[in-house]
Each structure stands twice: as structure tokens, then as C-alpha cells.
Amino acid sequence: MSRFPIPNAASLSSAHSQFLEQLSDEQFWNYAVELAHAAPVDTAPIDDYLVCELEKGSCILPLVTLREVVPPPHQFTLLPAAPSWMLGVGAWRGETIAIIDLNAYLSNTTAPLHSDGMLLAVQLDGLTLGLFVSAVGSMITPTRERMELSGQGPVWNAPFCAGAIKGVYRDMAGQVEALVLDVPIIVNDVVQHMKDNSRL
User: Which residues pair with 136 in a beta bridge?
Assistant: First the structure.
């Protein structure tokens, strides 16, 4: 543990400057060595995320992958041999897109029929999917210190693709607040499942 204060800003405050002036040459060089070996504290924001409510918990998705948040279509067109977590296809801005129940996908269960919720249009490399969620919350800009990127979520989470979950976002009390989703991995995984099912 350091015997000296470690500045967390590039510029020195006047109090820290006074502290340095009071050090002997030996103390100054000891302090410099401690600073050189100190682990950097990264509190920079990662990205902006959107908080979404699912039936069994919350999740956050990076805004950079979202194209639009809209009410879902009144009806979904079911496809034969579709994965159990797929609600069907629907129209979005003149395009037919697959609509996935995100809670069912993340818990590897069958998607129930829904009467209300929200649709997130996500896009990756020209592919667009609709992710159905129970509700949409606020936008947040988390810091790395509040993200636990372990790839593990709560017990209800059992996706086909382990990479779908980056980790968890924790609140100030250290409680699990939301799953951190990796949207590109989810989109690629869903597309692969749809291709595999179409061959059956």
C-alpha cells in the first residue's frame, strides 16, 4: 500500500504541489517509484447504454448498436422451424426483420405471446433484428469500475451463446443491477440459428 497520495488527475492541485515541495530528494524519488508501479485507476466512461427491463431482470445494451426504439407490431408472422425464442417476423421501416424475445433468448426458453412491450431495432453489418423487451428505461454512461465483465450472469440466464453476456453492471451498493449484453455476438448467434433451422 502506498505511503504517499497518488494523484488521479494529470494536472497537480496546489495542495499536491505543496506536498511535493516538502519532500526530501530521497522521499521524492521513492514517491516517483511508487507512482510508476501503481495500477492505473480507470474511471473513464465506456459507452452510452440503454437500460431495458426483461421479465426476469434488467439488461443494458450499447446505444451504438441501436437504430430505433418503437412499439412492437400488432402481430408477428410465425415461421416454420423458427427457434423457440423467436416471436416471428415483422415490418420495420419497410423491411422484414426477425423479432426475438430477448428474455426468452437469454433464458433459453420459449417466447410467450405478448400484448405490450417495446421493440429495439439493432443493426450490425447490414443485418437488422428486432429485440423485444418488456420496457425501456433510461440511458446511462457507466464507468469501468462499475462493470464486471466476467461473462457470467444470474442463474436464470442460460443462453446458447456464452458470449451474449459480457458481464454485469453493478450499482453503488455492489448489487447486480443489469446484464451487460454483447449485441454483435447476439445478432451473429441469432442469424446462425436461423440458418441452421432453415436447413432442417
Answer: 52
The dihedral formed by the CA atoms of 71, 73, 76 and 77, expressed in degrees to the nearest 10: -140
Answer whether 50's CB lies under 8 Å from 63's CB: yes
| Angular region, 125: left φ>0, alpha ψ -120 to 50, beta rest | left
Picking from 154, 61, 72, the residue whose alpha carbon sits closest to that of residue 118 is 72
Q: How far apart are CA 101 and CA 119, in angstroms?
A: 9
32 and 56 inside one domain: no
User: How buried is residue 134: exposed, middle or buried, by Cβ count under 10 Å (0-12/13-18/19+)?
Assistant: middle
Name the residue among 107, 108, 100, 110 with its Cα closest to residue 156. 107
pLDDT in tens, 66-104: 999 999 887 788 888 788 899 999 888 888 999 999 999
Task: Kindly state whether residues 22 and 108 are assigned to the same domain.
Answer: no
Q: 28 and 83 share a domain?
A: no
- For residue 45, name the pLDDT band (cuts at 50, 70, 90): very low
Pair (18, 106) in one structural domain: no
The residue segments making up the domain with residue 103 are: 49-198
Are residues 194 and 117 both part of a single domain?
yes
| pTM score | 0.70
CATH number at 84 reads 2.40.50.180
Query: Do both 160 and 87 map to the same domain?
Result: yes
